[in-house]
Amino acid sequence: MNYGLDIGNKKDLVGICYSTWFNPIVKYGGEKPKNIAEILAGKDTWGEVGQFHFWSEPALGYYRSDDQKIIRRHMEMLQAAGIDFIILDNTNASPGWDTGASGDYWDQMVRQPVEALLRTLLEMRKEGLQTPYVVSWNKTDPAFGYEVCDKLYREHFSREEYKDLLVYWGDKLFTLTTELTENPPAYTEVRKMWGLVKNLAPCEWSFLSHENKPCQDYDGNNEQICVCTAAQATYMTCTDTALGRQG
User: Fold this and answer.
1) Of 37, 148, 193, 230, whose CA is between 20 and 30 Å from 177?
2) Tens digits of per-residue pLDDT, 188-238?
């Protein structure tokens, strides 16, 4: 295959999760998001329960996930850091987010940011720049199967102009999912990935682990390992399940 990144027989590749959830939080002409650092300093008050709060203002300011200038800067930094591919976290995405209305939740959380990301990467490649490749980590569920994967494939990943930006396993698009449900799509090679799983099944990946043990394939070969500086099942204050940074 002469396009994309085939990871089926590669070693020592590095991936990193990349969030595209900020469009509903940073609205055009909306109020500045809540900032915990400012709240603790007495400069602001807490928002409503469940309202998104930033730990502090990002180095590039409060940004939307479809801001191509921000995306370009992120990709430049990730490429310079030696990141081979980014993992788009769509683990909360649901087919029900797509109501058919412009600006619905699917539009804000998935369609707009993914299209902006791929368009930016394509522009950078045309300029002769190297960029990380893209993997999508999607929610799967017995109730709707692989519908999130299928929607992303139809809307973005099946398009000819984007095929060199993506990660493959052999001749199939590579996809991460939250569950392995029945009848995975024929166009993709799937790996389940979740966190804090003590005994990983063969070919099961992890994004969060206290032990940082490698995942192995069915032949006992190491396939993937999660590296994290800290981990918690719920909240950092729940010390029974939280492990802070060591060293």
Assistant:
1) 230
2) 999 999 998 888 999 999 998 877 789 999 999 999 999 887 777 677 777
Assigned domain for 204 exists: no
Q: Is residue 233 part of a domain?
A: no
Inside any domain, residue 224: no
Question: How many domains, the chain?
Answer: 2
* pLDDT of 247 higher than 60: no
Nearest Cα neighbor of 162 from 6, 3, 17 is 3
> Which residues span the domain enclosing 185?
5-21+64-195
CA 139 to chain centre: 11
Please check whether residue 193 is in contact with residue 205, taking contact to mean a CB–CB distance below 8 angstroms: yes
Strands 167-169 and 5-6 turn out to be parallel
Q: Which of 204, 175, 180 is nearest to 7 (CA)?
A: 175
Cα radius of gyration (the chain): 19
